[in-house]
Predict the 3D structure of the following.
Amino acid sequence: MELSGSQMVVEALKRESVKVVFGYPGGAIMNVYDEVYKQDFFEHILTRHEQAAIHAADAYARSSGNVGVAFVTSGPGFTNAVTGLATAYMDSVPMVVISGQVPITMIGTDAFQEIDAVGISRPCVKHNYLVKKAEDLPRILKEAFYIARSGRPGPVHVDIPKDVTAQIAKFEYPETIKMKTYKPTYKGNVRQIKKAIDAIVNAKRPVLYIGGGAINSNASEYIREFAKITGIPAVETLMARGVMGHDNPLLLGMLGMHGCYSANMAMSEADLMIAFGPRFDDRVTGKLSEFAKHAKIIHIDIDPSSIGKLVNVDFPIVGDLKNVVEAMNPLAKERVDPSKYKSWRDLLNRYNEIHPLKYEDSSENIKPQWVIERVGELVGKDAFISTDVGQHQMWTAQFFPFTFPRQFITSGGLGTMGFGLPAALGVKRANPDKISINFTGDGSILMNIQELMTAVEYNIPVINIILNNKFLGMVRQWQTFFYEKRYSSTDIEVQPDFVKLVESFGGVGFRVKTKEEFDKALKDAIECNKVVMIDVHVDRMENVLPMVPAGGTLYNMMLEYKE
Amino acid sequence: MDNQRRVLSVIVMNEDGVLSRISGLFAGRGYNIDSLTVAPIPNTEFSRLTIVTSGNQRVLEQIIKQLHKLIPTYKVIESDTFVEKELALVKIPLNEDFSGLDMMLKAYNGTVAASGENYIVIMIADDSKKVGNFLKAVKKYNPTEIVRGGSVALDV
Ligand SMILES: Cc1ncc(C[n+]2csc(CCOP(=O)(O)OP(=O)(O)O)c2C)c(N)n1
């Protein structure tokens, strides 16, 4: 079959069963858009900014496990997309992003809207391609999808010059893929697994340290089983919320900078850490030399470079987490006696009783934590939750009762403000039967506010809940704690009327100042099935606690803030 | 942890942009490159890079893993049994006093690679340390230009 480069792009997306593409057109990618117009296999959603297209495709992937796809044009279209690529890369999200490029004949001449796109994307993608001729496209696109979803997933960027999209060449989409240089390891080494089980049998105070890899490898079911078999208590990172389920008696909670006391103490006092796909981020570990200082470490990860990157590992296991835990379970069942860790569990539960995650509710104003808990009570199991970045994000991670993996969609590694609204769109497109809620801040929401238009145009009912503290709250909190309350550029009392704003886009807005108003607004929001913004005025000075100050130790948390 | 020197032989697909992937990796993650040479491996689709780097044990381990992680990387060879050689060219004006130069060239297996009306170019090929010593020793002839080629290495 002979096709043009643009037709090949469309055809490859069909072969990869792509249902939705998010994107934004422009000169260099117009040939591709012309083919998009002629087909009806996948839907194209025009976001109102390229960054949002990437975030939407990213969240589509995070919430479904399928590769997200986005199109952007050359030059500014591509540079706008970079934050999205970096966000996805840091959190290992499978995506294929296709950008237009000036014609091959003009590359290197500083042509209109020319930028060295692969040069820019290189450090923020898993792999990238500059396509030199149309006949390479089938192979490159096949590889792009394969690389994006296999091994440790990640975004792949394909830059296609305009003349290549017009070239006619033979189209043969490879059925299978053979790459000499890229072969991820899926099966864990059996001997290493046995040694790890030995270590578990010999441990007195083991703890499961669960990271984002657990979500990526769909290992949740097996990890829950492992915990049940062994009776080993678990802590989750921000990226792993939902893996264990909030009502699991073995889950202590989130660990790290804003982790709960018992989770951080479990890490600090453990004699064995069983790391299921985390990456020892500094927001989790605090001061590295003090992190889980007494523990031997079992680390399972599909990415060898993740193992031993920051801490020395006693039992490294390279492999797909799901496969490895599946292999561990029968061995654990045979050899591990869960009653052995009872006193350890009791101790941790006592820690939790002494210093539970808490906030002081108020009758005068709404506490942001209350809003999150309330949403959890009302629609906890039926909603996907996206967030932006800041205090509201941390409170969501702390207080929302996550019940299933992929429920929580948040920018962890890069911490990208502006992620939430486009992410909620992607989530809703991938999961039309679920409610899609975005917890956001009055700062973050303005960073991709134009996406209200996309949501309205494509009838994607998402519910944005602004925890409005009229501050860039998280930065304000650091200024309160560490900068003697010099609130440099964080007071954002000057605000739009968020209700009118969303209405002007064609959505529905609610302004909420009491708990009763909130309950009613949420109910109406769900019933109206429209694009919604609930502007909740919350206590301005609430802080995220407990807190391990940057570089501090997990066992030395700031539990409350006293003036 | 102390710094160690390490020679790595990296076999990669011979394709556009691999060199920038590798140099970008070193620059972006703050790894040292003491020298880097690259050339295609005859009759294959691969190129061989020889990279001399240094760092502590953990850094060296990460360098190797990160190199592996690059999609076009086929193999990263680190070996204690490399034959490692480096080439150096030294240009010396002819108005210098050359007494002893002959002996030195003999000692270092050096040769005169080129000569002209008012200069000679001498060449040696040896392991990096020897090349370093030679370049120190040759200073007394006031060379006007020195070029070092960077190591190439072969696992034996
Ligand atoms: C794009 C971007 N710019 C700056 C920051 C730094 N930053 C982290 S949290 C934060 C404040 C966020 O304020 P808001 O969205 O109102 O949320 P709040 O903390 O008040 O809940 C800022 C500025 C960031 N994470 N991302």
About this structure: The two ends of chain B are 29 Å apart (CA to CA). The beta strands of chain B are 4-13, 35-40, 46-55, 73-78, 82-93, 111-115, 119-126, 145-155. Chain B touches chain A through 19 residues (CB under 8 Å). Residues 57-69 of chain B form the longest helix (13 residues).
